[in-house]
What does this fold into?
Amino acid sequence: MDAQGLTSSQRKLIMWYKVKELKSKGLHCVRIAHELGLHRHTVEKYVRMTLEEFQASQAYERDFKHKLDIFEEEVKKKLIKAPYLSCRQVHDHLREGHADFPEVSEKTVFNFVMRIRALPMCVLREKRSAVEREG
It folds into this structure.
């Protein structure tokens, strides 16, 4: 979720509704695109779609595969045990522990670790362990 508490899919659905609303007011697609900061082709595509078509489309909810997904559980466990680990340290642990670790940049590992840190389960366990250490 982002700072406003909305998922990507929710933000896209709101944008679809805004496009439909502006179109119903008689605005042309180019004007709608300018108003909302979208490409005119995106606006034209949204105008043609019904709600069901939009929700079934790849634009609504994408499921990307990540190169490091196979290491997610291991990294979660490491971060729960040691939330202070830097992304660089996680990268080193993965390279040392796995001969089949793919050649990826440090930025890829950084993005991967930050995505895992953003997961609610990980955050809750980090807070819980911090309270246990203090108490």
